[in-house]
Specification:
- It contains 2 helices and 4 strands, in the order βαββαβ.
- β2 and β3 form a beta hairpin.
- The mean pLDDT is 91.
- It is elongated, with a radius of gyration of 13 Å.
- Strands 2-3-1-4 form a 4-stranded antiparallel β-sheet.
- It is an alpha+beta fold.
- It starts with 5 loop residues before the first strand and ends with a strand.
- 12% of the residues are buried.
Length: 97
């Protein structure tokens, strides 16, 4: 049903050039926008630096941030748009729980 909150998990992958402090700032930016679009139960986890299985945008090591939240599905388009426009993100995934 499109009129009820759904739980999602978003994995954001950044190049290894960013410090954990900078990544925290970026993650809070996305959390603030999610809250603006009606998301609740927003949780941010820094998953650390990890080796990538293959090169992605000339990176073989990347920082992982996990965002978990509940949101109305029709508000996801705005979230996906800002993810695609952010050149700091190497790759992103959005999974419905």
């Amino acid at each position: 049903m499109k009129n009820s909150l759904s739980s999602y998990e978003s994995i954001l992958i950044f190049s290894a050039n960013y410090s954990p402090k900078k990544l925290k700032y970026i993650a809070y930016y996305y959390a603030k926008n999610l809250k603006k679009w009606g998301a609740t139960n927003i949780h941010i986890k820094y998953r650390g630096k990890r080796d990538l299985a293959y090169m992605v945008k000339e990176n073989n090591v990347a920082n992982y941030i996990e965002l978990s939240f509940d949101i109305f599905p029709y508000n996801l388009n705005s979230y996906n748009k800002i993810l695609k426009l952010d050149d700091k993100i190497v790759r992103s995934f959005l999974i419905k729980k």
